[in-house]
Structure formats: structure tokens, C-alpha cells
């Protein structure tokens, strides 16, 4: 096992919450039940994560920057909120989250940013985009089926967005959009996208993914 795979870990749980489905469309009466079942499957997958290690490709668009970060990265996560993310490339950086503090440093250590996590921030939701939907009532859900994959899209409800915009200093890094590509046969999460209230937009495509030490099937 490679050195970066060995990290020590605690335990994670995702709190259940009600699922809000979009109104039924004519001829699609089974969609709401299927939607609820799919979100329940995603929650069950996430609730069982105590460790997560991945090789991924990241595309990150940051508010105020013209060019996105387009790079490979190595991820090591331990529940509930411990993370090391090494982003490669000319704009490479290291993100460490531990003890409620997020530290970001350039690959050459030319600069460093240290900040406390906001009380609502969660590594899985807001950094990795693996949505726990701890407050499912805050989102409206949609889905589409692509072969064995179900694409779950969750939008922050307008009233919730307005409340968070009024407290932007606290909620600027919280997710307002989640998209998760879930294989409903294997339960594997292939790709995630998260857009924050502050405008950061990150897509992670997992090339290799270990959950609790087990390599997830393709």
C-alpha cells in the first residue's frame, strides 16, 4: 500500500432528513418514489464512510479567477472532518483540515492561508461534494438516469439561499448546488460537483476510490 493510503481514522454518520422531490410530471408517477429511494441509497453509502482515499481529477473554478484549476489530486479523508488533499500541477496546493481548522498552502510554500471552519462546514459536503444532505429539507432534488448511473442534483431552496446570503460571512463556503453521479448497481460514487454560495465550483472525477480500505468497483 502506498504511503499516502495509510491514514488513521475515526467514524462518520449522516443524519437522516426528509427528501423533497419536484412535482410529479404526467406519465412519471414513479419518479418521486425512485428519487427518494436513490437519495436514501446515497445517504446509506455516505453514512458508512469512516475512511476515504482517492485518486481524482479536479476542475475548480474560483470566483474572480479567469482560468480554472485543472489538475490531478490525491485525497485522504477520515471521519468526521479530517482531510489531506494534494493538488498537482503549476497551480498545485495542499489543503489540510484537522481540529476544525483548514490550512491551504502552495506547493512551494510561498503562501499559506489558515482559517477556522464555520460551524456548518463539512468536508464531505462542502469540499469533496459527497453530499450527506444532513438538512434535506433545505434542498430541492432532481435526478436523471444514465445507464447504471443515477445523477442526483440538489438545489438550495430560494428561501434557504436568501437566509444564507444574509449571513454570507458564515455561509459563503456552504454548498448551494450538489451533483452526484451514483452507480445504483454497485453503490459507487463516480463523480461529484459542488458549487458554493461564494461562487467556487468544483468537479471531482474519481479514478480510484477506496472506502474503508476497499477499492470500489468501476
Textual characterization of the structure:
The chain has 218 residues and is of the alpha+beta class. The chain has a single domain (17-212), classed as outer membrane lipoprotein receptor (LolB), chain A. Helix content is 16%, strand content 41%. It has helices at 31-47, 123-127, 158-166, 168-171; strands at residues 51-61, 69-78, 82-87, 93-98, 101-106, 112-116, 139-146, 149-156, 175-183, 189-196, 201-211, 214-215. Strands 1, 2, 3, 4, 5, 6, 7, 8, 9, 10, 11 and 12 form a 12-stranded antiparallel β-sheet that branches. The protein is globular and about 50 Å long. It starts with 30 loop residues before the first helix and ends with a strand. The relative contact order is 0.19.
Q: Give the strand tally.
A: 12
Query: Termini, distance in Å?
Result: 20 Å
Structural class: alpha+beta
Find the CATH superfamily. Lipoprotein localisation LolA/LolB/LppX
Within the CATH hierarchy, at the fold level, what is the topology? outer membrane lipoprotein receptor (LolB), chain A
CATH architecture: Clam
Q: How would a crystallographer describe the biggest sheet? A: 12 strands, antiparallel
Helical amount: 10-25%
Oligomer: single chain
As a whole number of angstroms, the C-alpha radius of gyration is: 17 Å
Strand percentage, roughly? 35-45%
Q: What's the overall average pLDDT, rounded?
A: 82
Residue runs with pLDDT of under 50 for 5 or more positions: 1-31
* N-to-C SSE string, H for helix and E for strand: HEEEEEEHEEHHEEEE
Amino acid at each position: 500500500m502506498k504511503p499516502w493510503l495509510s491514514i488513521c481514522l475515526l467514524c462518520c454518520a449522516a443524519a437522516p432528513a426528509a427528501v423533497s422531490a419536484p412535482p410529479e410530471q404526467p406519465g412519471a408517477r414513479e419518479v418521486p418514489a425512485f428519487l427518494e429511494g436513490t437519495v436514501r441509497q446515497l445517504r446509506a453509502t455516505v453514512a458508512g464512510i469512516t475512511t476515504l482515499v482517492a485518486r481524482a481529477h479536479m476542475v475548480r473554478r474560483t470566483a474572480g479567477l479567469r482560468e480554472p484549476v485543472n489538475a490531478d489530486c490525491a485525497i485522504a479523508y477520515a471521519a468526521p472532518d479530517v482531510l489531506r488533499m494534494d493538488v498537482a500541477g503549476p497551480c498545485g496546493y495542499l489543503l489540510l483540515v484537522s481540529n476544525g481548522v483548514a490550512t491551504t498552502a502552495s506547493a512551494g510554500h510561498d503562501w499559506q492561508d489558515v482559517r477556522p471552519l464555520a460551524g456548518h462546514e463539512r468536508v464531505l459536503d462542502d469540499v469533496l461534494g459527497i453530499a450527506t444532505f444532513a438538512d434535506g429539507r433545505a434542498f430541492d432534488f432532481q435526478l436523471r438516469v444514465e445507464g447504471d448511473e443515477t445523477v442526483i442534483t440538489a438545489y438550495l431552496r430560494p428561501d434557504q439561499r436568501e437566509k444564507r446570503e444574509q449571513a454570507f460571512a458564515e455561509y459563503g463556503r456552504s454548498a448551494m448546488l450538489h451533483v452526484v453521479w451514483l452507480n445504483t448497481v454497485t453503490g459507487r460514487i463516480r463523480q461529484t460537483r459542488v458549487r458554493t454560495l461564494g461562487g467556487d465550483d468544483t468537479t471531482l472525477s474519481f479514478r480510484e476510490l477506496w472506502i474503508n480500505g476497499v477499492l470500489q468497483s468501476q
